Amino acid sequence: MTAPETATRPANPSVAAVVYNPVKVDVDDLRATVADAQQRAGWGETLWFETSVEDPGGEVTKKALEQGAAVVMAAGGDGTVRAVAEQLRGTGVPIALLPSGTGNLLARNLDLTLDDQPGSIEVAFTGKDRSIDLGVFEARMEDGSLSRNAFLVMAGLGLDAQMIVNTNEELKKKVGWLAYVDAIARSLKGGSRLRMRYRLDNEPTRGMAAHTILIGNCGSLPANILLLPEAAVDDGLFDIVALRPKGLFGWFQIWVKIAWENGVLRRTEVGRRLMGTSKEVRALRYMKGRQLVMRFSEPEEYELDGDAFGKATAIRTYIDPGALVVRIPQDEEIDSDQEVGAARHSVDVPQ
């Protein structure tokens, strides 16, 4: 896979930075562990940057780059990782993941260790680099302004985004991802559907109604849910699924497809052979592409990597191939032999 061109910038190869969410991590323990690993690796004094409600990580990552950080460790939840990655896009400076919180979606999809902080910090100083794709999401907001953000794992519209908005944060702190069960129940009460016109790559514009649209750079969610089984983080494409159930039976079909076929059968050779005899489910529609443009009949909530961003009247999302470098263990195998051929696009978000 051909890596993207990176911006020319001064960098001190012996300086790392940590961008951390003080709510998610034990800062004193983290500092002590980083200091030990830094000394063993022969690096200089690590730079430290704290996130805040006003700045989830983007602005402080800019400061880390300005001060010559050769690697930026993201210590926090998925929101911290996404904000750091957004600023590292196209720079060639790697992100190192120090998983924390309930999601850790990118780390899960890269099969990185979730519960070994010293090991993750060691990888930041001694690991190797892997280039992966980033999703870019442009949204025309209710007030007419344009919002542009990156996502690493998944963007969601409709029921998925409403679920994020309706999640009780206090309940999430106590029971983790089980809090989303409560949020789903409250979101389903609305019974609303997305109604849109969309264009995928250079195909004709079409109309569609769906409860949820999910656009994935990766395929796996927590609880071992394989939502997008063909998604690859470095193939220059994103995978899309539209959930279009009609009544309870439609939701049951979706559950069988995702939980049983994707979650169980697909993981064994015998199961994959059995899947060959199963029929496609009309309640699920899968697509692949490099760019998706959508215009909605009314403003719709959207989320990126588990964070709500507000309501949009239209969106354009596309893949930026190989735009992010991730620090991974030296002994980690990179399972990819696909060449990235996706060009970067310049189509305007519809008004």
Keywords:
single chain; 351 residues; alpha+beta; Rossmann fold; Tumour Suppressor Smad4; 2 domains; four-stranded parallel β-sheet; 28% helix; 32% strand; elongated; disordered C terminus; methylglyoxal synthase activity; NAD/diacylglycerol_kinase_sf; transferase; Diacylglycerol_kinase_cat_dom
Any overview of this molecule?
The chain is an alpha+beta fold. It folds into two domains: 111 residues, Probable inorganic polyphosphate/atp-NAD kinase, domain 1 (Rossmann fold, 3-Layer(aba) Sandwich); 148 residues, Tumour Suppressor Smad4 (Sandwich), CATH 2.60.200. It contains ten helices and 16 strands. Strands 5, 6, 7, 8, 9, 10, 13, 14, 15 and 16 form a ten-stranded antiparallel sheet that branches. Helix 1 links the parallel strand 1 and strand 2. The relative contact order is 0.17. Keywords: Kinase, Transferase. It comes from Diaminobutyricimonas aerilata. This is Diacylglycerol kinase family enzyme.
Helix/strand structural class: alpha+beta
Elements, N to C (H/E):
EHEHEHEHHEEEHHHEEEEEEHHEEE
Largest sheet: 10 strands, antiparallel
Question: What is the distance, rounded to the nearest whole angstrom, between the alpha carbons of the first and last residues?
Answer: 36 Å
What value does the average pLDDT take?
A: 81
Helical content stands at 25-40%
Keywords: Kinase, Transferase
Organism: Diaminobutyricimonas aerilata
Protein name: Diacylglycerol kinase family enzyme
Domain DAGKc: 11-141
Q: Short description, anyone?
A:
28% of the residues lie in helices and 32% in strands. It has 351 residues and is α+β, with helices and mostly antiparallel strands. It has two domains: 16-126, Rossmann fold (3-Layer(aba) Sandwich); 135-244 and 283-320, Tumour Suppressor Smad4 (Sandwich), CATH 2.60.200.40.
